């Protein structure tokens, strides 16, 4: 009983409860048919949201105003870079993945350069950068018809006993991210900056370096995500990352990370990502039209955020 | 150019007269920056294509400036209260769909829907304040809601603007093109309301120092509701103006306006925090973007692929110029 109460006090538990409720509602609707397949599909799709969500989580934890709006453009460009470098060749998979991540890191570093040099809010810096990245992608990826190497495509779809291998790897990655956040100097510094940037600076945290690393990390994860998406969906696309703007921010907030910064948790990102994917599956199963689906998705997101409530401002 | 009641003027303290005049010069330069960017874009257009600088040329080039300016003003109100509206683009699209369908076929219902949507904005303001929610996430969620509603109202592009709206937007005054007159009017009205009335000061103060305002007995709930309702109102005006120009609607017609409006406010000298905004600057910023977005780039023979990048580059250049000037201000 005590352990249950302890569990309910965790900020991330609600996103998992939400995901479970949505799954139960869908399975009830289908009369128990396809429940397992739904979990497999949800895990495969949630992976892409979790990877960028973790990057966005570190950025948002830096404090108010910190957010990476260049992720969709970043994902789009990296997907094209990965496909071009791999060129349908199995032996180039690792090189392609590295190239996509390097491309993302360069974008993240450029973002921080703008924030630092122009002293502008990250929102407008990453927004301006995303305009430019988008153009580069349109020009670079024009008419790109390269399919992913067969080995890479089957790797992104590989399942063991109905569990996608990519999801297992992403869980391992999330555990690593959680350790980095709570147990390593880097993560503690991010949290300290989010709680009070001046206090962190006075305490000897190298604020500039940590912020640079965080934006670069977010960029690198965006790049990795672009490559994985291109493998999963069999090709690069300028618009492949569009939905991850809302998704990456929403999973962070629904997962119980504070938008005011300084308080983060990784499990919530998983719970919220599963919740969003299952929600979409549920609405598709109910057979609603595109308009109703968008309407309900929006209302549910606003509803969940309202129910979760914001942090009381620290004054 | 605009009254300064921000931290900068308080912190500076006693200074020698020469320092003070240098400070005033830097501040003037900063205030003039939006106008200078507009003049620069106009000069570039005049140089590349002298024939564009005419009554007809401006009417064409500034065709979409009115809805962009109205959307930018809408965004400016939420930014004045330290919030951000990421749903204004899809909201403009939603209003456009209502305008091209209900407002023409059943004007009373149409008016009620539009008033109701302003009410929704007011409620959002209340919700964001009462539950202390991040406006970015709430409005991102709302952007789905507006888009969904727009698709439900108008599943396929079509509809038709009401006749009175068409004739209003096709108005051709003598000597000065209508978009310029409309822009001046919008800037003047909003400038008076927000910068010259006492409640305007309170509204901006809610972004500048909310704690001080609430201790002085002003309701922060009310200021947030008013700011969001004004955003809704100008969003409605923007959507209607847009449909008056394009004559028919499409659920995705306003999607680009979210980014354009934020960029316009920033180009116009607004800042994300501190209630530091400028209605005149915002309108100038919107005009600059409207001109820079396509006419200038077309005259410069920049391929369509790179037009988005050019927008980003213009933003970065203006912000860089502002940093250079602000450095003197310190």
UniProtKB/TrEMBL annotation, chain A:
The chain crosses the membrane at residues 12-33, 39-62, 92-115, 122-140, 160-181, 212-232, 244-262, 269-288, 294-314. Signal peptide: none annotated. It is a multi-pass membrane protein. Coiled coil: none annotated. It is found in: Cell membrane. The keyword Cell membrane applies. Keywords: Cell inner membrane, Cell membrane, Membrane, Transmembrane, Transmembrane helix, Transport. One of its GO terms (molecular function) is transmembrane transporter activity. The keyword Membrane applies. This is Monosaccharide ABC transporter membrane protein, CUT2 family. It comes from Mesorhizobium muleiense.
Automatic annotation (TrEMBL), chain B:
It is found in: Cell membrane. It is a multi-pass membrane protein. The chain crosses the membrane at residues 28-47, 53-74, 86-103, 109-128, 135-155, 175-194, 225-245, 257-273, 280-302, 308-325. GO terms for cellular component: plasma membrane. Keywords: Cell membrane, Membrane, Transmembrane, Transmembrane helix. GO terms for molecular function: transmembrane transporter activity. The keyword Transmembrane applies. The keyword Membrane applies. This is Monosaccharide ABC transporter membrane protein, CUT2 family. The lineage of its organism: Bacteria, Pseudomonadati, Pseudomonadota, Alphaproteobacteria, Hyphomicrobiales.
């Amino acid at each position: 009983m005590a352990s249950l109460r302890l569990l309910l006090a965790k900020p991330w538990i609600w996103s998992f409860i939400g995901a479970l409720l949505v799954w139960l509602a869908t399975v009830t609707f289908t009369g128990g048919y396809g429940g397992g397949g739904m979990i497999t599909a949800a895990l495969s799709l949630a992976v892409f949201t979790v990877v960028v969500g973790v990057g966005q989580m570190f950025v948002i934890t830096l404090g108010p105003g910190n957010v990476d709006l260049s992720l969709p453009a970043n994902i789009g460009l990296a997907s094209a870079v990965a496909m071009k470098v791999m060129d349908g060749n199995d032996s180039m998979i690792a090189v392609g993945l590295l190239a996509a991540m390097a491309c993302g890191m360069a974008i993240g570093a450029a973002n921080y350069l703008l924030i630092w040099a122009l002293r502008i809010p990250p929102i407008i810096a990453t927004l301006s950068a995303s305009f430019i990245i988008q153009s580069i992608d349109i020009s670079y990826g024009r008419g790109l018809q390269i399919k992913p190497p067969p080995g890479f495509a089957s790797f992104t779809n590989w399942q063991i006993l109905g569990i996608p291998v990519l999801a297992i790897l992403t869980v391992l990655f999330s555990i690593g991210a959680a350790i980095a956040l709570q147990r390593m100097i880097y993560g503690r510094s991010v949290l300290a900056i989010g709680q009070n940037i001046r206090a962190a600076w006075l305490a000897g945290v190298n604020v500039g370096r940590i912020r640079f690393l965080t934006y670069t990390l977010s960029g690198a994860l965006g790049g990795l995500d672009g490559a994985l998406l291109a493998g999963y969906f069999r090709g690069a696309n300028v618009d492949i990352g569009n939905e991850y703007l809302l998704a990456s921010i929403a999973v962070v907030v629904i997962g119980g990370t504070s938008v005011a910064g300084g308080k983060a948790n990784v499990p919530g990102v998983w719970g919220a990502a599963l919740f969003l994917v299952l929600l979409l599956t549920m609405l598709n199963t109910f057979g609603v039209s595109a308009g109703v689906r968008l309407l309900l998705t929006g209302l549910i997101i606003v509803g969940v955020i309202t129910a979760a409530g914001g942090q009381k401002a620290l004054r | 150019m605009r009254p300064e009641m921000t931290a900068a003027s308080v912190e500076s303290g006693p200074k020698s007269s020469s320092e003070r005049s240098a400070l005033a010069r830097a501040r003037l330069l900063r205030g003039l920056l939006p106008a200078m960017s507009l003049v620069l874009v106009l000069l570039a257009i005049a140089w590349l294509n002298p024939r564009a600088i005419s009554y007809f040329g401006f009417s064409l080039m500034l065709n979409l400036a009115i809805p962009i300016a109205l959307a930018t003003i809408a965004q400016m109100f939420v930014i004045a209260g330290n919030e951000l509206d990421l749903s204004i683009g899809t909201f403009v699209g939603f209003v456009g769909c209502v305008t091209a369908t209900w407002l023409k076929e059943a004007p009373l219902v149409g008016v009620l829907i539009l008033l109701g949507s302003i009410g929704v904005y007011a409620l959002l303001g209340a919700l964001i304040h009462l539950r202390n929610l991040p406006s970015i996430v709430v409005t991102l969620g709302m952007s789905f809601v507006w888009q969904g509603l727009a698709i439900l109202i108008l599943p396929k592009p079509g509809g038709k603007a009401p006749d009175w709206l068409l004739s209003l937007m096709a108005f051709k005054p003598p000597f000065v093109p209508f978009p310029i007159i409309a822009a001046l009017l919008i800037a003047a009205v909003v400038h008076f309301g927000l910068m010259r009335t006492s409640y305007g000061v309170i509204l901006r103060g809610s972004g500048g120092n909310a704690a001080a305002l609430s201790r002085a007995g002003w309701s922060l709930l009310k200021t947030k509701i008013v700011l969001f309702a004004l955003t809704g109102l100008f969003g409605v005006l923007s959507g209607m103006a847009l449909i008056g120009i394009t004559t028919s609607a499409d659920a995705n017609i306003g999607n680009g306006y979210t980014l354009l409006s934020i960029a316009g406010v920033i180009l116009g000298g607004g800042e994300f925090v501190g209630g530091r905004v400028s209605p005149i600057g915002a309108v100038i910023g919107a005009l600059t973007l409207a001109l820079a977005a396509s006419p200038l780039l077309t005259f410069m023979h920049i391929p369509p692929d790179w037009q988005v990048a050019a927008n980003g580059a213009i933003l970065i250049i203006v912000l860089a110029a502002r940093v250079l000037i602000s450095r003197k201000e310190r």
